[in-house]
Predict the structure of Enoyl-CoA hydratase.
Amino acid sequence: MAYDTVLYDVADRICTIALNRPEKLNAWTRQMHIDLKDAMHRAGADPEVRAIILTGAGRGFCAGADMGGLQAIGAGGGSADRSTKAAQALQGGSTLPEFKMSYSYFPAIPKFIIAAINGPAAGLGFVIPLYADLRFAGESAVFTTAFAQRGLIAEHGVSWLLPRLVGLPAAMDLLCSARKFRAPEALALGLVSRVIPDDKLMAETRAYATLLANTVSPRSVTVMKRQIWEAEFQTLAEATTQANHEMELSFQTADFKEGVAHFLEKRAARFTGQ
């Protein structure tokens, strides 16, 4: 299946999804929203996929909402309705209602998502990768929340998510000033985990995804991803109770047996996700 605004490729257990309006720096449109959501759920449901890379085609990640669409909303000539059908909960993914919103569905995808930020990431293009499980940035990446410069507000849950990544004072700064900042500062703030030379960004991101695809239990990754995201809404006691339950379940799985066997036999793991 081909998409109008995203590229979709699966190879070696890794799904690469690229926002694909390079002539517009991948500016966000309604169709891109629909295409990306479908592609993410498709990858999440594919048993051949063990990790997902999200990036942008061309020289940017996403320059934010397409200005033509914003202009139409401001003039009353377009619809501001952004409602979507609720995504079906995938096996293994979080079922919390918080992760069924229009843009907060990444935590419900039961595969590890890495955002490879390869250039400008502004507005909605800033928010989207925050919902990924990990973010790598190219050296030329430039970030801005942008909302305050458009007369808008902290959209799509970023007021909840950003302080958890960078702290409250930094989140206030980035949101209220809408200033631009570059990859080294993003790394210092904890917004991204790595800054990589532009010409090596995809290779290094893919190397990390390959590590996930080939050396760890996909079932373990799915459960731990769900635990970590859901822990934001739990007490320590609740998180521990959930972990104890999940531990008992893991003892019964083929991946647990394989995890012990490949270590004792000093060979590469052959995890099945079962």
User: Anything to note?
Assistant: The CA atoms of residues 130 and 161 lie 7 Å apart. The domain at 6-212 is CATH 3.90.226.10 (2-enoyl-CoA Hydratase; Chain A, domain 1). The longest strand covers residues 6-11. The radius of gyration is 19 Å.
